[in-house]
Every structure is written in structure tokens, then in C-alpha cells.
Amino acid sequence: MLDLDWRTVVSQIINFVVLLVILYYLIFRPLRRKLDERSEDLAQALQNARDQEAQAAELRRDWEQRMAVIDRTREEILATAAGEAEARTAETMREARLRLDAATEQMRRDIQRQRDEVVSESFGDILDTIMGLSANVLQSVTTRRAHDDLISNLLAQIYQMPQDQVEVYRRVMAGRMPTAFVTTPVPLSAEQTRNLTDALSSLIDRRIELQTSVDTGLIAGIQIRVGDRLLDNTVVNELSRVRESVSRGMVERLGVGERDA
Question: By Cβ atoms counted within 10 A, which residue in 75, 77, 250, 251 is the most buried?
Fold first, then answer.
């Protein structure tokens, strides 16, 4: 059996307990407090990290929403700009088309006006030439019978003249010498002279005297001047009327005056 000194054992136990107490208060307890504080710091840091992660996630969601709004706004701006550009292009094309149409119409009018001016400048000469040629042709083909028929027709017109026109001739000749100035392309026959004297005397209700002359340029027919009144059914007068009618129609069509018409 071991020979133990119980007092020594008890003393060693007491020393060990005292050492444990000293170690607890001097080392373990402060260490534990440090560990607890460190744990609290770690827990707080972890919580802060979680909070920051949540904030970061919230910021990311907010950023993504803002970017989506920006994308939509950009698309809207681009679509609006494209629409405005297309509208401006269409408006520009429409204005250009209107200007082109106006320029084309003005050019057409200018060309028409220039053509009409050229035609108008030469129309009088052309018409005079045509009338001259017509007079030459008619003069070469007109017979004495045609001339006599024209005189007979004028005599018939005098007898058939309305009463109001008869009164005009009688007023014109009132107080004047009863003389009629007669021009024909060929001399009147005795019968024509007598018939004409009777017709004109009946017209003015006075015996009239004829003063006759010959103008071959009249081609056929008769001119009679009674006072300031003129009876004319000569071929050249008819040609003059035709010329005037054609000239008037051309002036109305062109809308410009005829040179020397």
C-alpha cells in the first residue's frame, strides 16, 4: 500500500483549486468575455453584411427598374423621332411635289403664252395673205351673173327693210341733197341704174340722184352710201367680215391681242 501523506494531498488539491480560481478570474473569464464580445461583433458584422446585401439587392432592383424605364423612354423617343422624321419627310415630299406641280404648270403657261404670242404676231400677216389669195381666187371665178344677183338681192333688202330702219334713213337725209354714192366692180346697166334709183327714192321718200364709180377690187356686189349710212354686200366686204370673225375668234382663244388686226 502506498504511504500517502494526506496533508500533502489536501494541500496540493487546495493549491490546484486556488490555481483554477486564479486562472478563471485572471485568464478564462477575460478570455470568455473577449470571445463573447468577438461573437457579438461577428454576429453584428454578419447582420450588417446581410443588411448591406439586402440594400444591394434593393439597389439592383431599383437600378433594373430605372434601366427598364430608360429603355422604354429611349424606345418611345426613337419611335417619336422616327415618326416625326417620317412626317417631315412626307411633308417635304408633299411640298416638293406641290412646288414641282406649280413650276410645271407655270412652265406650261409660259410655253403656251410664248406660243400664243408667236401665233398672234404672225396671225395678222397670215390672215391677210389668206384673204388676199381668197380675193384673187374669187375675182377669177366670179361671173357677171353672180354680180347681178348680188345687186338684185340688195334691192330686195331695201324694199323689205323694216319701217324703223326706213325712218332712220329718212332722218339722215332730211335737209341733205338727195344723192347716193354707188360703187361697183363693173358699171351698172341702165336697168340696174333705174331699179336702184327707184328703190333708194322709195327708201328716203324723195327722188334721189346716183353718183356711180367703179372699183374692181370689190370683186362683185355693190356699195351704196346714203348720207352717213352704208349698204354693202360686195364680196370684198364679206371677206372682211370673215377676216374679222376669224380674228375675233383667235383673240378670244388666245386671250391676247392680234398685232395690226
Answer: 250
- One digit per residue, the tens of pLDDT, for the chain of length 261 reads 445 566 776 777 787 777 767 776 777 677 677 767 777 776 776 787 677 778 877 878 887 888 888 778 778 877 777 777 677 777 877 887 788 788 788 877 877 777 666 666 666 677 677 767 776 777 777 788 989 999 999 999 999 999 999 999 999 998 889 999 999 999 999 999 999 999 999 999 999 999 999 999 999 999 999 999 999 999 999 888 888 887 777 666 655 444 444
Strand 229-232 to strand 223-226: parallel, antiparallel, or no bridges (unpaired)? Answer: antiparallel
Domain edges within the chain: 1-141, 143-254
The one-letter amino acid code at 2 reads: L
